[in-house]
Amino acid sequence: MEEASHPYVPRDLKLPGYVPISMSMSSILTVYLGASLFVVTLVWFLFGRKKPQLDKLLMCWWAFTGLTHLILEGYFVFSPEFFKDNTSCYLAEVWKEYSKGDSRYAGRDSAVIAVEGITAVIEGPASLLAVYAIAKGKSYSYVLQLAISLGQLYGCLVYFITAFLEGDNFATNSFYYYSYYIGANGWWVLIPLLISFRCWNKICAAANNVETKTKKKIR
Amino acid sequence: MEEASHPYVPRDLKLPGYVPISMSMSSILTVYLGASLFVVTLVWFLFGRKKPQLDKLLMCWWAFTGLTHLILEGYFVFSPEFFKDNTSCYLAEVWKEYSKGDSRYAGRDSAVIAVEGITAVIEGPASLLAVYAIAKGKSYSYVLQLAISLGQLYGCLVYFITAFLEGDNFATNSFYYYSYYIGANGWWVLIPLLISFRCWNKICAAANNVETKTKKKIR
């Protein structure tokens, strides 16, 4: 099989059998954002009735991030040869496009697969459970949201640190570096940070409450 | 500089300037276990007074694991050339010995450095904070212990998955594979699992308690 040329950096990355991307960047983004908007709207109006605004917003986030983890990242983890796909399969196109921001995806870097595997297999289903937990006001709601958010933060740390240690030279150009590698992942740093902070405080407040009650009883 | 031979697998691993290990395995283990026993005894009898047995045990674990993260793993992270050390420095000897179970340490594998970096810099200090939190009965005690334990579990997952993806061929022989790579790390899977389970339940119980109280007030 002859080696196909590819648009990724480093240029000496070997991707035998690479089939060029067939969808445009705007089509890929439109489908992703459109599908996400559909999910968010559904959750907001269907499952979020009678809930405070913040709970509705959190349910939308967990549904969006959970489906992204399960479908998009799940496909990546279990499709080692997505870059050879010649059927214009949307999920393969997504990763062919994203690899312009981080070629370790096309190159099957083991740290990236490990982090994406944990994200898809554990955090994906757990995120959908978080939607249910918030909807039903379960007692494990905050601790579950905290656990997933900390996992997302740990994953981002491993993701960025390993790239840095290996020379931080995996983006086709600085546009893809800042929009895909930094920009897209930035949301999975910022939002989990905010949620962790909130859940941590809620959990401590509940613990404080129990403690005060126990002390009063002892007296 | 001529390439020194080394005892690690894979045999084609390049470690120019490698200085052979000078301490025996038993000396290295004796110092580690002796120092750990000293720390545990100190915490048990000094800081653990008037505390339930389980709290004392947990404080001992957090002091032991925190100092291991900070000192042992901290040294590894910031000493990229430990395998060239010719001063018989104890910490370098530890990692020269441990690399027989996983040569990615001597080989500076980026996933290993990322996980060890997070462990040493974040989880090390956090573990010592957990000792203090338990001693003082802080409201963040359970959530802090849960967060560190989940971090340790995430780290172990990345550690084992990346080795598996790269062929799982980093141990000098099966003795080192099972005693160092599996055996030593196994404790950091088992104990964090138990602690996570306990803290999760404690946090949910507190949340339940607050909820019941709120419902009663509403009625």
Question: Can you describe this structure?
Answer:
Chains A, B: It holds the Pfam family EBP. The structure is a homodimer of 219-residue chains. Chain A is built from six helices and no strands. With 219 residues, chain A is mostly helical. In chain A, helix 2 packs across helix 3, helix 2 runs antiparallel to helix 4 and helix 5 packs antiparallel against helix 6. Chain A is elongated. The model of chain A has no long low-confidence stretch (mean pLDDT 94).
What order do the helices and strands come in, and which of them pair?
Two copies of one chain form a homodimer.
Chain A: H1 25-47, H2 53-77, H3 90-98, H4 110-136, H5 141-165, H6 174-218
Helix pairs in contact in A: 1-2, 2-3, 2-4, 4-5, 5-6
**C-alpha-based Rg of chain A, rounded:** 20 Å
Pick out the low-confidence regions of chain A: none
**Overall structural domain count of chain A:** 1
Please tell me the overall pLDDT of chain A: 94
Question: What is the β-strand count of chain A?
Answer: 0
Total count of helical runs of at least 4 residues of chain A: 6
The major pleated sheet of chain A works out as: none
Given helix and strand content, the structural type of chain A is mainly alpha
Q: What is the ordering of alpha helices and beta strands of chain A?
A: HHHHHH
What oligomeric assembly is this protein in? homodimer
Whole-Å distance between the termini of chain A?
81 Å
Biggest interface, and residues per chain?
A-B, 36 and 36 residues
